[in-house]
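Materials and Methods. Structural model of 1D-myo-inositol 2-acetamido-2-deoxy-alpha-D-glucopyranoside deacetylase. The 330-residue sequence of 1D-myo-inositol 2-acetamido-2-deoxy-alpha-D-glucopyranoside deacetylase from Plantactinospora sonchi was retrieved and submitted for structure prediction as follows.
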Amino acid sequence: MTVPPDPSGPAGPAVDLPARRLLLVHAHPDDEAIGTGATMAYYAAAGAGVTLVTCTLGEEGEIHVPALAGLAAAEADQLGGYRITELAAACAALGVTDHRFLGGAGRYRDSGMMGLPTNDHPRAFWRADLDEAAGHLVEIMREVRPQVLVTYDPNGFYGHPDHIQAHRVAMRAAELAAAEGFGPAKIYWTAVPRGVLEAGVASFADADVANNPFAGTEHVDDLPFGTPDEQIAARIDGTDQHTAKEAAMRAHRTQIPENSWLYAVAGNFGGEFMGVEYYTLAAGVRGPGSGPYGWEDDLFAGLDAPTGVTGPAVEVPTSTPGTPAAAGVR
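The predicted structure was written out as tokens:
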């Protein structure tokens, strides 16, 4: 992993930075590949600075490789360490060289699904002090000066406590960084348009594949996620990078089984499914777009200055959304 040098003082970094700089905040290893892998590969290939921050090691994840079952939290509790190697391989597949764990590897522990006893572990990310965790992220922002920040919506996309906490930490860090004059100019939340989900329900509700989120679903409203198409702000077409995204997903072999619904959908829809990702704009000014909803095709759309961008202060949600985490989805 290549880590940029530290900045020298409040005036800013003492080293040259890429003209465009993207920071992504995810909860567990594999979230980056599933949700934003094509976007990361697209911008890395274009020469942008792409920094990934992962908040936990994913210690509570299910294990889909029988030979590695002994790594589980209830056994040797070594899954987190193993997933570090999976994440390194995934980042290599995506062409991303700057990856950090929030506060250092193992500082925060995977909290498990909402309502489980693992939520109360002393190191559970769900229990993390917000300003302390955000402070770790501010230090990274001070170093890499991202113009664009990507994280989850207030419900963590589907209700996992670590995703919700990642949202809170990212938004609080953006607020603190903006107060110091180097906050991101635009903040995006990952999303899937309802139109895309409707196609998934129609095609895969009865598919015999692992962890199928559409199983038994009759209507898109039955899913714990989905954004009206008109609320989507950006559509990133990384179709040319779809093989990199799939390779990154396959690197997370303990978490994504070989017969995963993700690969099944990719088999039916190919590069468009793997390579196209969507976002809502949470803060900043929307840039020019196209199509019936004016979707941006670049997360940096409308940003003229390559350096020194000061972002807006953002409001951090303080209430916990009530939508439960979808079973079997991390």
